[in-house]
Write a structure and sequence with these properties.
With 431 residues, the protein is an alpha+beta fold. It has 2 domains: 326 residues, 2-Layer Sandwich (BirA Bifunctional Protein, domain 2); 93 residues, Anticodon-binding domain (Rossmann fold, 3-Layer(aba) Sandwich). 42% of the residues lie in helices and 19% in strands. It has 17 helices and 16 strands. It has an 8-stranded mixed β-sheet. Helix 1 packs antiparallel against helix 6 and helix 9 runs antiparallel to helix 10. It binds one RNA strand of 77 nucleotides through helix 3, strand 6, strand 11, helix 13 and helix 15.
Length: 431
RNA sequence: GUGGUUGUAGUUCAGUUGGUUAGAACGCCUGAUUGUGGUUCAGGAGGUCGCCGGUUCGAGUCCGGUCUUCCACCCCA
């Protein structure tokens, strides 16, 4: 929890730096909003919410209803699957209130009815940043900068930003005569890291791609070299494809202002709504999948009746980033400390005094905890120890009488009698 | 959705071919130390062996069902 909050702080700070504002949308969406947006597999993974009330009342009359129809009959709502579609809905519904181009970030949990496994959860936080209402490649550039800025702050440095353009993929499928298998092609080429070239060959044969095209595709996949040499290669490769050249042109324009990314023509991304630039951030020495990913989508709002609105967004996978930070020991120690000082009192008569003292310290901005029941000093000190509280103030009869309190440093064990003001000064100087 | 895996103390796990009273480590509690923690030492509490049923003189152990955990695939952050 502490760790997640630390991440949120880093994210929010950087989002604000780049001029994004926060919005939130409800956990639940109507089924029509969710269904059909994430591909066939995606539909299966949407959590459905049963209608409230006696939702089976009218079902009895429909004896021949198919299980599929029954499903949509008794469940009209679902839990959100990602943050982008609800955002598109939000933009369409509030188009009178927002000014284009519109920028926002959103940090909320999403749910997927998947079998959990390593790095995959049924509920996880997504952290999305989107631009909407502009086709400018400034967005692409800004988002890449934002990623660097966040990962630098988190001290993660072994990662790579992979970038591609869906139009190039579309051009390839056009050129190699399997445009009708485009979706399948995206899925297959995207997992080439996992299955390798031979696996890809096998799967493509299995899915009946034209044999001649497989060979040509391999040459493209095994392409090495820097970004501009890669660009030159595909430029000739796709010289007959209008859409392909368009994609290349977009990347070239981007490279004029931003170049710290790796072109990777095997990057495809699963979600079907992307139409142009796509990118993913992958850790170099860890195989838990991508840490964040996103891309440009034209007309995502069209399904909600708002046309010709292009948007681009990126989504950070919080849980996976936590894993990376954990395995590399990159969380700062400071986040483990809850309170700077614990007030420990020795008899119930001293509760009132202790509470007063606690509030005085809190007024000065010093995080203060108070042991919530009378207990032996030993126990209270142990509590401070286990909770990483660096200072303890001990209050007994003598202290109250003299107006001086025992301040104990838990690290070196030193302690001395100080007045309230002296304690405040000391604590403030440490912070 | 497909294939596998797991379940025993608060936690992580042992538990032999079915056999008397189910163990360890850590954590927790008490004391050594009436108002001084981390270390040490002595003692103590904690379990319907996931749940239901079956085989057996006898089941944590074998069988069936069910739920759960984790992993891989599909897919994805």
């Amino acid at each position: 929890m502490k760790k997640r909050e630390y991440l949120f702080e880093v994210f929010k700070y950087n989002f604000n730096l780049y001029g994004f504002n926060c919005i939130e949308t409800p956990s639940m969406e109507n089924s029509e909003v969710l269904n059909g947006k994430y591909g066939e597999e995606g539909d299966r993974l949407i959590y459905r919410i049963l209608n409230s009330g006696d939702f089976l009342k009218n079902i009895n009359n429909k004896k021949n209803i198919s299980s599929n129809n029954l499903k949509s009959e008794i469940s009209k709502k679902g839990l959100r699957y990602d943050l982008t579609i609800p955002f598109a809905r939000y933009v369409s519904m509030n188009r009178d209130k927002i000014t284009m181009p519109f920028k926002r970030y959103q940090i909320q949990p999403v749910w997927r009815a998947d079998r959990p496994q390593k790095g995959r959860f049924r509920e996880f936080y997504q952290c999305d940043v989107d631009y909407i209402g502009t086709k400018s490649i400034v967005c692409e550039s800004e988002i890449i900068s934002l990623v660097y800025s966040i990962f630098k702050k988190l001290k993660i440095d072994d990662f790579e930003i992979k970038l591609n353009n869906r139009k190039i993929l579309l051009g390839i499928s056009e050129e190699l005569n399997f445009k009708n298998k485009f979706e399948k092609f995206c899925v297959l080429i995207d997992k080439i890291d996992k299955i390798g070239v031979s696996g890809l060959k096998k799967e493509m044969k299995l899915s009946k791609f034209p044999t001649s095209s497989i060979k040509k595709l391999i040459s493209l996949i095994e392409l090495k070299g820097n970004n501009s040499s890669k660009i030159n290669y595909v430029k000739t490769f796709l010289s007959n494809s209008k859409i392909g050249l368009e994609g290349i042109n977009e990347i070239e324009n981007l490279m004029k202002i931003k170049s710290d990314f790796t072109l990777d023509f095997t990057l495809a991304r699963g979600l079907s709504y992307y139409t142009s630039t796509i990118f993913e951030v992958v850790p170099i020495n860890n195989n838990i999948g991508s840490l964040c990913g996103g891309g440009r989508y034209d007309d995502l709002t069209e399904i909600f009746g708002y046309k010709n609105i292009s948007g681009i967004g990126i989504s950070f996978g919080i849980e996976r980033i936590i894993e990376i930070l954990n395995t590399n020991n990159l969380f700062p120690e400071k986040i483990e400390i809850n309170n700077n000082v614990l007030i420990s009192y020795l008899s119930n008569d001293l509760i009132k005094n202790s509470l007063e003292l606690a509030n005085k310290l809190r007024e000065k901005g010093i995080p203060t905890d108070l042991y919530s029941e009378k207990a032996k000093l030993k126990k209270q000190l142990q509590y401070a120890n286990n909770n990483n509280i660096p200072f303890v103030i001990i209050i007994g009869e003598d202290e109250i009488k003299n107006g001086k309190y025992m301040l104990k440093n838990m690290k070196d064990g030193n302690q001395n009698l100080l007045t309230i003001n002296e304690i405040i000064n000391k604590m403030s100087s440490i912070k």
